[in-house]
Amino acid sequence: MVGRAGSFGPGGLDGAPPDPALFPDWRSFATALSAFYSSQTKNRQGVQPAPVLLQHADTSGTAARAQADGLMLFDPVREVPVFSRGGAWVSDAESADFATEAGLAAMAEIGYNPDRIINGDFSVWQRGVSFTAAFAFTADRWRNVWGGTTPGSQSVTLQDFPPGTQLGRNSPPIFARVAAVTGTGTDHYSLLQQLIEDVRSYEGQTVTVLGWARRSSGSGDMAVEIAQACGSGGSSGVSGVGVDVALTADWEPFAAVIDVPSVTGQTIGAGSYLELNVRLSGGSDWGTRRGSVGAQTVTVDFWGLHIAPGVRTVADVLQYVPPSPAEVADACLRYYETGTFLMQSAAAGAHAHSVQFMTAKRGGPTMNFTVTSSVSWGTLTSQGSFPFGFRVNALASAVGGYGFVDWIADAEL
Fold this sequence. Notes:
Blueprint: E1 2-4, H1 26-38, E2 52-54, E3 73-75, E4 80-82, H2 92-95, H3 101-111, E5 130-131, E6 136-137, E7 143-147, E8 153-160, E9 174-181, E10 189-197, E11 206-218, E12 222-229, E13 243-245, E14 252-259, E15 273-282, E16 298-309, H4 314-317, H5 325-333, E17 336-344, E18 349-356, E19 366-375, E20 381-386, E21 389-396, E22 402-410
Antiparallel strand pairs: 1-2, 3-4, 5-8, 6-7, 7-10, 8-9, 9-16, 10-15, 11-14, 11-16, 12-13, 12-15, 17-22, 18-21, 19-22, 20-21
C-alpha cells in the first residue's frame, strides 16, 4: 500500500514527482520516487517538502511501521526506511489506519520535519572541540550554560567512541561530554542548551525529547525542560517543568515527554525561540524547572538527541537514525559560518570585496573580521551583511597591496 499526503512546498522541484497510481506496487514507486528526488537540487532555504508516506503491504511487525518525516523513502533493495531528517516512528497500531484518508491526514500532521533539534548527533564542531566559558557555543547549535551568584563550572568536549560501539541502528564516531561542577548558591545552574528557532515550534503539542546518555563520572541524574521565549518586543516567556531522566554508567536510551504550551494570545516578536534545557545541576531557586535535580557534580555523555511529536518511549530511540552529515552541516551553516578571502590591489586606493555564504542565514549575521597578514593594506570596513553574503572595503596604499582576511558570520539566536 502506498499513500501520499499533502502538496509539495517551495523548494525548486524540477517537475512533478511520480504519481503512485501509475505503479503496480510500492517497490516500483519507491524506486521511481527515490530517483526523482536524487535528481533535484536541494533547497538552499532549508524548506522541506511535505511528507511522502509509504507503507509495506504487510501489516504485521516492524514491516508495518511507517515514517512521516519531511521526505521518507523505502530502500527497495534492503526494504528499510531512508531518513531525511531522523525522527519518529509511527506505531504498528497507528499504521492500521494508514491507507485511509484520515490516517494519511493524521500522519501528515507529524510528518513535516518533526525534529527541530539541529546537530543532535554532535557531528559538527566549527568552533573547536573543548569549551569552558559560560554561555559559549560548543558543538554547533549547543551552548554551555552555567552561572549564578556562586556558580560552579561546566565544560563541553568532543569525545571519540571506541570503534564498533553500537547505539540502536548506529555506530557513531563521536559524542559530547558535559562535565558540571556544582555551585553553592540557590540560584546556580548548569545545563546543555539549544535554542530552537521560532516559538511556534510544537506549540500546543505533546512532544518527546529522546536520545542516548550515560553518567561517566560523579553522581546524580538530569532533567529535560522546554521553555518558550517570544522574542524582541514579544510577550513574557513561559518556563517549562523539568522531566527527570535517570542516568547509569552505561549508554542508555531516554525519552522525556513534555507538553508544550500554546502561544494563543501571545505577542511574538523577532528572534523568538524554544529553549531546550538539559539540566545537570541547579539550586532551589529554579523550582520545578530543575525537576528533581539538585546541587551535584556529574559528567554526562550525550549522543543522538532529537524530538518526536507525541508520546514516545525508549523503544523509539532504538529506531533513530540521524540526518546525513551533509544535511547536518547545511543546517548548522544557517546560523554560523567561517571563511577566508584575499583582497589584492592593482592600484593604490579603495577596493571592495563581496562574499556569498554557502547557506543563507536566518537573518543578516553579525560579522567579525581578522586580517591575518597584509602588505600596504589599510583598515577593513564592513559595508553590510545580509542573509546571502556580505561586502567589505579596504584602502590599499600601494600597487600590489594585499590582505588575507578571516571572517565569521554569526546568526545564532
